[in-house]
Automatic annotation (TrEMBL):
Coiled coil: none
Protein name per its UniProtKB record: Ankyrin-1-like isoform X2
Start-end of each ANK repeat: 82-114, 115-147, 147-179, 212-244
PANTHER family found in the cross-reference section: ANKYRIN REPEAT FAMILY PROTEIN (PTHR46224), HSP70-HSP90 ORGANIZING PROTEIN 3-LIKE (PTHR46224:SF67)
UniProtKB keywords: ANK repeat
SUPFAM superfamilies, sorted: Ankyrin repeat (SSF48403), TPR-like (SSF48452)
Amino acid sequence: MGSSSEIGASIIEAGASGDLYQLKAIRNKVDDEWEFRKICDEYSDFSTGRTVLHHAVGIGHFEICKFLIKTVRVYIDAETYKRDTPLAEAAKGGHVKIVEFLIKHGAQISLPNIEGFTPMHYAALKDNRELLELLRIKGASIETDSVDGTPLQVAVSRGHVEAVKSLLSHGANPNFSCAVVYTPLICAVKSHSFECLKLLLEGKADPNFYVSGLSPLQCAAKEGDTKFLKSLLKARADPNSLDTDIFKPIEDAAMEHNRAAVEILFPVTEQLAHYPNWTVDGIMEYVHSEEFRKMSEEKLTKRLNALDFGGLLDAGNKNYYRAIFHYRMASHLDPSNATWISARSLWEVRTHKCINALLDAQQCIRLKPDCPIPYHRGDNAAAANEIFKKFLRAGLAFLLDPYKSKKCHAFRVTMFDYFAWLSQMSSADEILSFSCDD
């Protein structure tokens, strides 16, 4: 019929187009059942690594899935370059029947991809309560973290009410935050989802718990719609927050010219001694004064220095998770400074949070595209040359044998992320200016 690569290409095409007749015809022309299964398992899209099974579940073609799993007996947990399994692809497409079929035939239910996303995350993204219920009943983990947070954080951040109801009813922690430092309550305010906020408070979310330097109340104080602020105060959120905060919620409201929020917070906020006129008008006027600006800059600098010192101290004691926490706080307070993100990326590597480290490194480059990067001269020449040699070795291995996934998986993922980042640039000139600076 042709070479294995030609057969593999035909199989991928049949799966992607949903042509079961063509797929069976190819199967009948291959002499050996084992050989056909091997081709189905080993051949994938060059750009994504999706096998024929990934394609079939992605378009929701149940009959092809049945044929591949029950008749051909393909590997059910094959991974793309991003490590998405067929089960993840099916969940991503919201294909409940196929998800159930894959689980029944042994698919692993909570395998994360390189960004930490599991089928449960994809179900939350689809706001598919039926799919969430199925996955939970079948034993899927509900608290798996990802670069976008847990399934609950993902759902709340997008205002997916049905998903939030399902996850909370199955015991999702309404106060959890790790990779995404904003708690679900803050995610609800930022997504302007009052329904999600109410569900979280009913689910015993703590309005005074936060780790990012921004409390739920501070976040709500910046919103023009004061119902978020009122609900949090009713739930006993503290308007006189911690001493480590740069500003109190009432100041955040005033800086946003949110007079309605200032009026709500004024009766419950303790007087700040440095304000010359502790009235609503006085607060609104003072936070826009030169004196307040200078004082704020001094407080911010002092706080950032303390966080930097704490991060370096923790890193020196090999408490890398605590160091990451310090630099997350710093990058929240000073979001345009790539230094904090760069430091965070370094310690994420030490804790084997590779995808977080990669994403933070990319964010550094976006914030500071002219920062020093692997050149072959100067003080960093040795390190740059070593990086470049590793890249060349990976590229050579890929060119010599592109189907040896164990050799080339890391290289493919790196290239995929690199070109995904390049695609976000606005023009060819911008890409060339970045690539040809040297």
